[in-house]
Amino acid sequence: MGNARLNVWVRDTSCNVVDRPAHLHVTNCHGVDVITPFWFRGGHTEVELPPGCFMVTAGVVWGNIYTDKTMVVAKCDQVTCVNLVLTKFSARNPPDIKEQFIALYCPLLLAVPTVVHGLNKGMDIKEIQRGLAVIAKAADIDPEDMMAHVRKEAEFLRKNMKELCEEDRKTIEKLMEAI
Q: Which of 75, 122, 136, 175: disulfide with 141, CB 3.0–4.6 Å?
């Protein structure tokens, strides 16, 4: 018996494939990532998973809107297909700027790599935090929330260190010490 394959399609409410960059999130039923979220294009991707029950959603770059969340049961050696519906998507009427969360999401997405690269360049964590505070202010994010995000992501990486190469493990250890 082997892993399951999951085909994921992102569609609008008219059943059309949404051909925009998106990031896939697959968690177990307790909300823990089963795979590291990743980007895909063309409204479709396929992933390999261990057999089990999963929650699947995708964030689509069009105001960074998320699809509905769907539960999927993946069985050994089977291909399962899921269609995620993007209920707020409209090709003709882009979402109002108030619904565009990309200004919030992107700074958080860049926070961990910024800290890691700064540490690798020998920067002091306080200096890095000051830089993140400026980005947070521009994005209207509380700087403490941004650092909480960095700590949460670092903890996730720490828990999954066995999946990382030796160099990355050393980087995560340095990150955990600094924050």
A: 136
What is the reported pLDDT for 46? 96
Rounded to whole angstroms, the Cα distance separating 166 from 143 reads 31
Domain of 161, in residue numbers? 101-178
| Span 103-149, pLDDT tens digits | 556 777 778 888 888 888 889 989 998 998 998 888 888 888 888 88
Q: Is the pLDDT assigned to residue 90 strictly greater than 50? A: no
- Domain presence at residue 91: no
> For the chain, what is the domain count?
2
Count CB neighbours of 151 within 10 A.
15
Q: What is the Cα–Cα distance from 67 to 13, expressed in whole angstroms?
A: 11
List all residues 6 or more positions away from 23 whose beta carbon is below 8 Å from its beta carbon. Answer: 37, 38, 39, 40, 58, 59
Residue 90 lies in a domain: no
Phi and psi at 130, nearest 5°, equal -65, -40
